[in-house]
Amino acid sequence: MQTQKEQYAILLESGLQALYGVSSRANANDICQEVLRINDAVREMAERHLSPLQPLVSFPSVMQSLQDSTNQGIS
Questions:
Q1: Whose CA is closest to 35, among 4, 73, 68, 1?
Q2: Whole-angstrom distance, CA of residue 47 vs CA of residue 40
């Protein structure tokens, strides 16, 4: 049985070929690892900064309100 990462890598490779007729120059496993890493980071930030009662659509505005002054005006 394939792991979630292996399944995602296969989906990524076949999706690029089917949708765009191209193959990625990057290794599908590397892309998969990065996507899963980003998912984990976003999930952690959402759990830390959103209350369970807030809709997920609030996430971008909450993150923007938490940015430091050096990043103000960057959206």
A1: 4
A2: 11
Cβ–Cβ under 8 Å, residues 66 and 48: no
Residue ranges for the chain with pLDDT beneath 50:
none
Q: Show the tokens assigned to 69.
A: 């002054």
Would you say residue 10 lies in a domain?
Answer: yes
Q: What is the count of structural domains for the chain?
A: 1
Domain interval for residue 20: 4-66
**35-to-17, 23, 39, 65, 71 alpha-carbon distances in Å:** 19, 18, 6, 25, 24
User: Which tens digit of pLDDT belongs to each residue from 27-44?
Assistant: 877 887 888 899 999 889
- The model's pTM is 0.57
Does 38 reside within a domain? yes
